[in-house]
Amino acid sequence: MSIKGAAYIAGAFEHPLRKAPDLSVAAIHAECARGALADAGLTFGDVDGYFCAGDAPGGVLSMVEYLGLKVRHLDGTDIGGSSYIAHVSHAAQAIAAGKCRVALITMGGRPRSEGRSGVKQKIVAANVPDTPFEIPYGPTAVNEYAMAAMRHMHDYGTTSEQLAWIKVAASHHAQYNPNAMLRDVVTVEEVLASPMIADPLHRLDCCVVSDGGGALVVVHPDIAKNLNRPLVRVMGAGEAPKGLQGGKTNLTYSGAVWSGPKAFEEAGVTPQDIKYASIYDSFTITVLMQLEDLGFCEKGQGGKFVADGNLISGVGKLPINTDGGGLNNNHPASRGGIVKVIEAVRQLRGETNPEVQVKNCDLALVHGTGGGLSSRHGSATLILERV
Amino acid sequence: MGTIYQDRIMTIPEVHPEHKEYWDAAVEGKLLIKKCASCGEFHYYPRVICPHCHSDKTSWFEAKGTGHIYTYSVMRHGKPYAIAFVELDEGPRMMTNIVDCDLDEIRIDQKVKVVFKQSGNQENPGSFIACFTPIESD
Ligand SMILES: [Zn+2]
């Protein structure tokens, strides 16, 4: 069974706040759910499938109760920040199998108000088999991604200047997004002059820490066609976990090498066909590695590919993250996946700021890396088409 | 000048039943990895079932304790420390810290040997943790 054409994204909503000290996490989820349903022209009563991940307090059961949903399909898949990209695929599968017709996906959190950041040690859960062999060494979000960057530089000659171009592109886009957390355009020199956090990643190689969230409504084709919204069709998807492989790991590639080809094959398209891409940007290195692994350039050529404005809408060959991405706009709950889907939907609908809108944007790719690039991560790829 | 290694408080790891020998050996300054009798492969971190061929014929193997740095990153925010992956001479790559050296001189492919540091602190000491330090080049 393929999910090609099995479902449409009818509703998308990104919470406007980037700091939300007065909202509970559950309330952020609820506000996002209401926003996405209103965007679709649907109501809470229409929802019969619910999806959330590790940011949802109490998981699916607490959230379904809080939101007052009556659903017949539940999915609490958590593969980190890419979960929501996988949820769109899972929702399409559930719709194709007749398990639901209106799937609601919510996410939200407030790491900024709670004082969390990517330089703090990860939270230790009991009985996780890998934790005793990692947690004493002080792994954090930043130094894990930094180790992948360091090896990529060693093997392929990738430079800090090239990584900086990814941030420069994000800042160019963010200047047009009134909700973006950081709106100042920066230069390569400014990225390199920002404080070193964990060699070789500078502060401006890192995404923002923001409160907020988002929601998506994925529906059966019959429902989509009766809504007064542009039609954004699910064309293909892939997902893949990557871990340390019993000690045989190679940290210069991500699980995108497996999830990407599956998504392209299902959609029947190639990287050259993609007009716009939302590429997970927890750190600049995340973007570079994913672009290579998805086949937008040859392995090892990512540095050249991202340089000189190639990722800037209207300037380069592959516009990405036209909202400003996690680097500038929003990385709610330290999980960037849902905003990646939302911006792709905006592009396909032609609803972004005209300054960053990709012309004739009829085919978009969304890709996420959730978790740690130098430990375990979940890769999820999604291809969407405007009908 | 450099960035000289400073001791840091390492989080005390949980000791899971299948890893008791590993942590007992660490007290003796020995690094244990697992070897599989079915496929002949080493693996790390250690498991009851081989992750490569799924045989349960895995047994403890004392690693030489030498290898080279596969990758690393020095944390510059707060007290500096060097996280790394070391490729053991037996093959597996393991997460670790590079210690007892100038952190600014750490390089990929540098040869290293295991040294153990105790987790926790004086009031609450924990297991000994396998770290690595550069070997003087000859
Ligand atoms: Zn085996």
UniProtKB/TrEMBL annotation, chain A:
Lineage: superkingdom: Bacteria
GO MF terms held by the record: acyltransferase activity, transferring groups other than amino-acyl groups
Note the coiled coil stretches, chain numbering: none
Protein known as? Thiolase domain-containing protein
Question: Per the UniProt entry, what species is this protein from, by scientific name?
Answer: Ureibacillus yapensis
Domain annotation Thiolase C-terminal: ranges: 249-385
**Pfam families on file:** Thiolase_C_1 (PF22691)
Looking up NCBIfam families in the UniProt record yields: PRK08142.1
From TrEMBL, chain B:
Q: Where is the ChsH2 rubredoxin-like zinc ribbon domain?
A: 23-57
Kindly name one Pfam family recorded for this protein: OB_ChsH2_C
Q: Which residues form the ChsH2 C-terminal OB-fold domain?
A: 60-117
* Protein name per its UniProtKB record: Zn-ribbon domain-containing OB-fold protein
